[in-house]
Amino acid sequence: MNGLIDPTDAALSQMPTAKLVQPFGDVFAGRSNEVSPASTNWIGGLAVAMYQGVPRLIGTIYNSFGVASTGKSHFILTKSTTAPAVITGPFEVNGTGVSPTACGGGRDCPDGWVAGSTTAIPAAYQTALGGDVLSGACCMSLIGRTSLGPTATRWRLADAAIAPVIARRLVAYPSNHPTLGQWITNGESGGTGQFTSQNDFSRFVWPQEYRSLLFFYRLGNPHLNCYGSPVAGDADGDPVMNATGEQQFQGVDASTDATGTVITLPNVNVASIGIGGPLGYLWLSSQSSPAFRYGGRNYQGLARLVSTANSGTPTASVTVAAANAFPPNLTAQPYRVAAPACYDPAEHGNASPDNLPKGGHTPTAYPYTVLVYGYDANDLAAVNAGTKQPWDLLPYATWPLPLPVNYPGGKYATNRIGAVAIDQAGRKIYVTQVFAGANGATIVLVYQIAPS
């Protein structure tokens, strides 16, 4: 179904508009907040499946920032927006063997691996994989609770009635096994370069006549990971003229010692600076040194902070490494303690001046490409049999997925996918491109599955 179409966008105005089949409604019947009652809960995915002989929806919910407080993620729902009801759920799908109360908020927490897409396992592979459905998730905040790349966990739909469901991860890249690449705030992803710090939530489907599990994925540049405030100016990065975005402190009275490594920030509560975190950088805006490379770009007068002292006093100070020293004996310097600005026009957008960072902090890895990753069912079966580990698997092939509309165009173009669904009987895969026009239009792309 399309969103509102901007009639001034020629590419969009030529497209047919889908009809509304059902009115909008809450298919979770007001119960999605049961996953994390004190948090913001988002929909991870919806998929149609036969449950106890009746067509139902499998719905997933995840905490938008942090692990689910209950460890639960899945619902079985009626297929209705006018008379929604929960058949069972929320329930836990646990592929880790660790209780949610003991997972420590990290990679052993179950929900960060399953609270996204769900797809049926073709009958021919259910025995080899040990289940009849796969659920997966990727790239959530906080990143430590989820996979560094696509993931798929098998389970049995019948077990929903006796949850928690005991499941098994078949594709997974935990933080201690970053095969495809690491989540990193500055520089290279490493690994195979098939994961970057800025990714879209991975979605997958499995055409039943094939042995290919297909992940739809938005990948950034593995050489240009950055964490900070998106900015659309300074494309060449030499130097970055507006070096910071989200800030913690600013002033005009910074001074450096005789080594240039200790910078006094009078009366600043420097103890509150998150050393090693996204806001732990100092910019002396009138200085051209030190030259600091961050996120593949060159910054002047910016350095990473390594320690603090005398917080809140006239001699409050911060320290930088000797290799990143400022000029010595400076006085009356304008400064900011802030997150670096990251060149990413797609995340910044064109609503404000190019050289004004958007604010906030987020991982970036501009530019982005939408891809399809193909995983071989025989590899998943090997993991289920214990002859391979989930992080041993690699896509057997990747394909670019060109999207039809670049909005707002040029360097600002947003290429995001929303949902992916499959019609097995009709042999079609549906992919939505979101934010494809001035009014947030959604375009539905339909791909025909060729005969096997």
Rg from Cα: 24 Å
Uncertain segments: 1-7
> How widely separated are the two ends?
29 Å
What is the number of E strands?
A: 28
Number of helices: 4
How large is the share of residues in beta strands? 25-35%
Mean pLDDT across residues: 89
Q: Write out the strand line-up for the largest beta sheet, numbering strands in chain order.
A: 15-16-21-20-17-22
Largest sheet: 6 strands, antiparallel, barrel
- Broad structural category: mainly beta
Percent helix: under 10%
- What count of structural domains? 2
Question: What overall form do the CA principal axes indicate?
Answer: elongated
Would you kindly provide a written description of the structure presented here, covering whatever features stand out?
This protein has helices at 10-13, 126-129, 345-348, 377-385, and strands spanning 41-51, 54-63, 74-77, 86-91, 93-94, 118-120, 133-135, 152-155, 165-166, 168-171, 186-187, 203-205, 212-219, 225-231, 244-256, 262-264, 281-284, 291-294, 297-300, 302-309, 317-320, 333-343, 362-364, 369-376, 397-400, 416-423, 428-434, 443-448. The chain folds into 2 domains: 10-224 and 365-448, no CATH class; 226-362, no CATH class. With 452 residues, it is mainly beta. The chain has a 6-stranded antiparallel beta barrel. A 4-stranded antiparallel sheet has the order 1-2-3-4, with no helix packed on it. Strands 6-7-8-10 form a 4-stranded antiparallel sheet, with helices on one face. The chain is built from 4 helices and 28 strands.
